Amino acid sequence: MLDEELAFKLQVELEVEDRLVRQREEEANIVSWDNVQAMIDADYQMAQQIQAEEQEKLSIEEKSKLFVQLLEARKKHFAVMRAQEMRNKPPTKA
After folding, report:
1. Residue 7 and residue 12: Cα distance in Å, rounded?
2. How far apart are CA 74 and CA 86, in angstroms?
3. Considering just the CA atoms, what is the radius of gyration of the chain in Å?
4. For residue range 6-25, what is the model confidence (pLDDT) as tens digits?
5. What pLDDT digit, counting tens, does each position of 54-94 carry?
6. Cα–Cα distance measured from residue 27 to residue 40, given in angstroms and rounded to the nearest whole number
7. How far is CA 69 from CA 54, 74, 76, 82, 83, in A?
8. Closest Cα to residue 66, out of 74, 92, 79?
9. What are the Cα distances from residue 9, in Å, to 4, 5, 13, 66?
């Protein structure tokens, strides 16, 4: 009987220790996830700040040049698309 009681007490102590270990691991995971989220937020804010600074650096003339280049690139792209459509179009019956 004494052995059974001793075995039961040891089992209870082991279970309590296991619960404490699991609880500490969960708390550590929560803290690490908070750190990761804080780093993500800081990186996002830094990226926004850098992007804003780069946009401020461009003058109106540079912005207009980039816009013209974009329009020319779009015109070329759509011209190529129209040419491909015409080539891929099946011949009509005469």
Report:
1. 9
2. 18
3. 34
4. 788 888 888 888 888 888 88
5. 877 777 788 888 899 999 999 999 999 999 988 888 877 76
6. 20
7. 19, 9, 11, 20, 21
8. 74
9. 9, 6, 6, 77
